[in-house]
Design brief:
Blueprint (H helix, E strand, L loop, with lengths): L2 H16 L3 H37 L2 H7 L1 H24 L17 H13 L3 H13 L6 H27 L1 H9 L1 H21 L1
Helix pairs in contact: 1-6, 1-7, 2-5, 2-6, 2-7, 2-9, 3-4, 4-9
Length: 204
């Protein structure tokens, strides 16, 4: 694999990471409501989920989807339902005020945040198709195993660093203060976006 092809893969996978989707929405929302530390762990889970889909694409999951369309259909329905379930909880709890008089505590453990990021990423099977196209377009068949490992590391870094950046921006004091004043509107906007993405994943 040439350096140019490797850089092309890195650029395309970065583009996939920054494309708006459920993972970016959850990174922003977690940074807002639970702080940078929790958002960073969620971002690591998102990166791990991307590696799962990239690995599946590497081993021909897209070909399996083509041979057994019902499997892709079931994954889309399950993933879409999971996102809509999360969206419902965001919408339902949007009107609950934040107690700013108490000392803020970490709402969830690092492991819980990691799992949330992982499941959010795995709920969307479209990255498997996207990574399949990226692999086919940039990675030659005779690529050594260690290069595949380096490519998966690039996928993890792109997804994790981007979503850490998103969580960091939304965890800033000025952003959080604005969120507190508009909590109901913002939470319901996040919820509506997640629901729309969940429905789109299930329907397309």
């Amino acid at each position: 694999m040439t350096l140019a092809a490797f850089l092309a893969f890195a650029g395309l996978s970065l583009f996939a990471a920054i494309s708006p989707g459920p993972a970016v929405i959850m990174a922003a929302r977690t940074g807002l409501t639970e702080g940078f530390r929790t958002g960073a762990m969620l971002a690591a889970g998102i990166g791990a989920g991307a590696v799962v889909w990239a690995s599946a694409a590497m081993f021909g999951l897209n070909l399996l989807f083509a041979a057994a369309p019902a499997m892709l259909w079931a994954l889309k329905l399950g993933g879409g339902a999971y996102l809509v379930w999360m969206a419902w909880h965001l919408w339902r709890d949007a009107a609950q005020p934040i107690d700013t008089s108490a000392t803020p505590a970490l709402p969830r453990t690092a492991a819980s945040a990691f799992r949330l990021g992982l499941f959010t990423q795995l709920a969307n099977p479209k990255p498997a198709v996207m990574f399949s196209a990226i692999f086919l377009g940039t990675v030659p068949p005779d690529t050594p195993a260690w290069v595949y490992g380096a490519l998966l590391a690039v996928v993890f870094c792109n997804e994790t660093v981007w979503n850490i950046l998103v969580a960091r921006i939304f965890s800033l004091d000025r952003t959080r203060a604005r969120y507190i004043s508009l909590k109901t509107v913002i939470d319901r906007s996040f919820g509506a976006l997640l629901a729309l993405l969940g429905a789109k994943i299930a329907a397309t």
